[in-house]
């Protein structure tokens, strides 16, 4: 190893810093002679807090500045929540590692109610995600679902100020920030199927940086990698961004990879579902293309059910 210092580009939110420091500690543990520094940045997505993400370009707004730091060689890697990473990466950049997935579920957070089922008709429920919104509207069309932006602390502050009766956040983010006690319950994935990549961290790097790629290699978690490759292939084939009402979640049990996908209308009146499985060979070279093909197959099944028209409506409403 010739490298002495490695720089991680990260957003300044508490959760992003937790994630960057988590990867920093892993790398320092693996390579005791390596010094790891953080380059803290503010992204466009952090600055525009008064507009729903779908209207300002989706979650790619949280990674562009970090990617520019990689291009400029001010940073060697960028650490992201995988669910925030666009499905197609800029030329010359790649995801060098998919880390082991944390809790993939959505969490119900409320100061007054124990469970989503306990919310009375007309209760105000906050979420930043069209994916959650369409699934929750289908389950509870009687609720008043409102957009909720800002980092985890800001969102909890709005709940505590009484602006919402309950909010939905990613379980993994709350747990990473030591806020597990705020979770009243985790939503069943049959009610709210997670976002593509939810709960997993990904590390972005330059495609031509062989040393960095080799340093990151031990951080790859093979099962997580296969699952999220399938999920992201599905989203790509649907031509969906991160901020659209698409859900995709893959699991591996007993050597079988199962992927479920959903596309919904934001009003919750339509929710298309597809599910397919694949027996894995245990050979990485063979299983990765097969996992991605599974994602494409699920996308085609959803498109055959009319997903295309639903997504077009979302894009029209966003502009």
Strand count, sense and barrel status of the largest sheet are: 5 strands, mixed
Secondary-structure element sequence? EHEHHHEEEEHEHEHEEHHEEEHH
| Low-confidence segments | 53-59
Distance between the termini: 49 Å
Helix fraction bin: 25-40%
- Shape estimate: globular
Instruction: Assign the CATH class of the largest domain.
Output: Alpha Beta
What is the percentage of strand-forming residues?
15-25%
**Count of helical regions:** 11
Total number of distinct structural domains: 3
- CATH topology of the largest domain: the name is D-Maltodextrin-Binding Protein, domain 2
So, CATH architecture of the largest domain? Answer: 3-Layer(aba) Sandwich
CATH homologous superfamily descriptor of the largest domain:
Periplasmic binding protein-like II
Structural class: alpha/beta
Number of strands: 13
Family: Belongs to the HMBS family.
EC number: 2.5.1.61
InterPro entries: HemC, Porphobilin_deaminase_cofac_BS, Porphobilin_deaminase_N, Porphobilinogen_deaminase_C, Porphobilinogen_deaminase_C_sf
Catalytic activity: 4 porphobilinogen + H2O = hydroxymethylbilane + 4 NH4(+)
In a few lines, what is going on in this structure?
The chain is α/β, with parallel strands linked by helices.
Can you describe this structure?
Belongs to the HMBS family. Its cofactor is dipyrromethane. It is an enzyme of class 2 (transferase). The protein is α/β, with parallel strands linked by helices and 319 residues long. The chain has three domains: 1-99 and 200-220, D-Maltodextrin-Binding Protein, domain 2, CATH 3.40.190.10; 106-187, 3-Layer(aba) Sandwich (D-Maltodextrin-Binding Protein, domain 2), CATH 3.40.190.10; 221-318, Porphobilinogen deaminase, C-terminal domain (Double Stranded RNA Binding Domain, 2-Layer Sandwich). 36% of the residues lie in helices and 24% in strands. The chain has helices spanning 14-30, 44-47, 53-56, 64-71, 130-139, 152-160, 171-176, 210-216, 222-237, 284-304, 307-318; strands at 5-11, 35-41, 77-81, 93-98, 106-109, 124-127, 144-147, 166-170, 185-186, 201-206, 246-253, 256-264, 271-279. The strands form three sheets. Strands 2-1-3-10-4 form a five-stranded mixed beta sheet, with helices on both faces. Helix 9 runs parallel beside helix 10. The longest helix is centred in the last third of the chain and has 21 residues, at 284-304. The N and C termini lie far apart (49 Å).
